[in-house]
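go over my protein:
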Amino acid sequence: MNCAIFGLQTVNPAALRWGNFVPETKNKKVMKKKVWFITGASKGLGLSLAQRLLKEGYRVAATSRNISDLEKEIGAANEQFLPLSMNLLDEGDVAKAVQKTIGHFGTIDVLVNNAGYGLLGALEELSDAESRKNFDINVFGTLNVIREVMPQMRKQQSGHVFNLSSIGGFNGLFPGFGIYCASKFAVEGLSESLTEEVKPFGIKVTIVSPGYFRTNFLKSSSLSVPANPINDYARVREVQSMHESQINGNQPGDPDKAAGVMIAVAEQDEPLLHLFLGQDAYQLADTKIELVKKDMDQIRSLATATDFAPGVPETLSE
């Protein structure tokens, strides 16, 4: 197996040190007064982000399926921190969490849709139920939160939405991650549409596409595998074994530095739409862009000669 496809072969950890840098901006004091609402904040990047925000004086509402997990990792509710139990797939439960946050802090200024999980299995061996469950959490859970937070942001004519995708939501050349990649491609697509829909209200959107960061994403609690694997997919099992025994615990990315970059982007006057995190993410994004451009150039003259010729009446194809 060529590890380069997973972005681990040429990563230089020293190149990630810039993630510690959070630039001073004229809006920094204002941002420290803003309220962040983070889903899936009891572990992974969501936890690192919540902890760093609290250390820097921000106000944070954090959600998890079990509020005890948040209290254990971060602490009890206070004027600066509000832990919330929330079921992403229950619209009523999401609405309650959003309203509790507004009642506690008065507003929501930054939404981070971080909750999600990985699914590793060949497309043929994953059942309909397994595939739909991944989409339910990664895509429809994100939409549930957006729908409930958006009225508040439209009312205040400001806000910033961070939707957590993955480099696998931009470059899908990962055998065994087809459904997971598809769910993250969906997150990227809906986020690009969202940025145009909410622009008139002064609301910004940023898609976060991380590479490999040293979180618990690859542990069994966050990475599901097929209930009925097919023996013929030896390459997929090799990829699974590699992630569980070699990559897990050796990811090059520091989640605290990733959190610092997200905070810096939130402080920008004009936040960027596409945020790739990690040297490996940049490498894989460049590979995808070069591949697409190569394919386009190879057949450009033929593929662009598909318009009706001048003077020829248009007819509907059967």
